[in-house]
Amino acid sequence: MQALAHRFGEEAATELLSFSRKHVYALKRVVEEEGLDCEFELRRSYDVHCNDREAEAARQYVRASQKAGRQWADDVDFIDGKFAEQVRTL
After folding, report:
1. Residue 46 contacts by C-beta under 8 Å, 6 or more apart in sequence?
2. pLDDT tens across 27-82, in order?
């Protein structure tokens, strides 16, 4: 998100991420309401920060975005330290 905001501005980046987020949930709703037999799964993704400075900058940016009411930030959270080691993909 920070890269988008830096390149296109905060407003455009927020608009793009909100657009994407709304469409993912709209697709989920259609699949459920229509009972579509498909392989749709709503999944989480993870960004990994390999140094503390980048991780803290990302955390501050997301927290500021949440306080500002940017909807894209509603689905974002952080996992630190020993808990991050427990996150894995199947």
Report:
1. 79, 87
2. 999 999 999 999 998 887 778 888 889 889 989 999 999 999 988 888 888 877 77
Residues 43-56 have pLDDT tens digits of 877 788 888 898 89
74: containing domain: 2-86
How many domains would you assign to the chain? 1
Q: What DSSP character marks residue 86? A: H
Q: In terms of C-beta distances under 8 Å and separation of at least 24 residues, what long-range contacts does 78-87 make, across chains too? A: 79/46, 87/46
